[in-house]
Amino acid sequence: MHGITCRTDGAILRIELNRPDKLNAVNTAMLNELTARLNDGADDAVRVVVLTGAGRAFCSGGDLTGGGTGGAADAALEAVRAITALPKPVVAGVQGAAAGFGCPLALACDLVVAARSAFFQLAFTKIGLMPDGGSSALVPAAIGRARTARMAMLAERIEAPTAFEWGMISHLVDDDEYDTELQTVVQTLASGPTMSYGWIKRALRESTLSTLDVVGDLEMEGQSALRDSDDFRRGARAFVERRPPEFRGH
């Protein structure tokens, strides 16, 4: 439904972004559905949530070609808040691109198991926007201010081995071992001390993500202003036409 598939496998809630033809690019309806399904993780029968993407990508960011993105920045932040507030472990399984909103979506999760061929990218400036979805809190909490500024301003692709070296992700595995490692991590958590995990998660949020709500609100304010800019219109048009943008600085 709305590009999200969900099933319960014993104590495991499996949520999949399922728009492979769009590389799992998200729109508002999809983000709202994602938040609703994440909230299903509060059920006592669920002990771990695993979030993956169908096909060749985890998530390529916002859908700039299909419409239905009004209020998407707010919806993206709500999905991230649902992950960080859930008192159960959430594991991201990343293959291919975790770009745009896909990057903070993965980093909001407690553990990230990434295939060696995966990559992470804050591609927002390519269309004249700023990172949102809590990126400005999540990414520096993982890799520091300088590397975050590099990712946010230069929109560089960060390959999974570099992401692992920087401390952005918890697990790096060869592509042919990805499914096995992801399943091992998830099964370990599903049979572990769920209450203990909840308190660990709460303490880590307090120590590293205490500014998430304030920063998220600031991102939404900035994104709203930037969407009215000439640079955004130029960037979005260039993206659809698959050519480099010509920004004017206003």
Give a structural overview:
This protein has 250 residues and is α/β, with parallel strands linked by helices. It has one domain: Alpha-Beta Complex (2-enoyl-CoA Hydratase, Chain A, domain 1), CATH 3.90.226.10. The chain has 10 helices and 9 strands. A 6-stranded mixed β-sheet has the order 1-2-3-4-6-9, sandwiched between helices. Strand 1 and strand 2 form a beta hairpin. The mean pLDDT is 96. InterPro entries: ClpP/crotonase-like_dom_sf, Enoyl-CoA_hydra/iso, Enoyl-CoA_hydra_C.
What are the SSEs and their pairings?
Blueprint: E1 4-9, E2 12-17, H1 28-39, E3 48-53, H2 72-85, E4 90-94, E5 97-99, H3 102-108, E6 111-115, E7 119-121, H4 135-143, H5 145-154, E8 158-159, H6 160-166, E9 171-173, H7 178-190, H8 194-208, H9 212-226, H10 230-240
Parallel strand pairs: 2-3, 3-4, 4-6, 5-7, 6-9
Antiparallel strand pairs: 1-2, 7-8
Helix pairs in contact: 1-2, 2-9, 3-4, 4-5, 4-9
Low-confidence stretches: none
| SSE series | EEHEHEEHEEHHEHEHHHH
Number of β-strand runs: 9
Calculate Rg over CA atoms: 17 Å
Shape estimate: globular
- Through-space gap between termini: 39 Å
GO molecular function, one term: catalytic activity
Pfam families: ECH_1
Keywords: Plasmid
Protein name: Crotonase
Question: What is the structure about, briefly put?
Answer:
The protein is an alpha/beta fold. The protein has ten helices and nine strands.
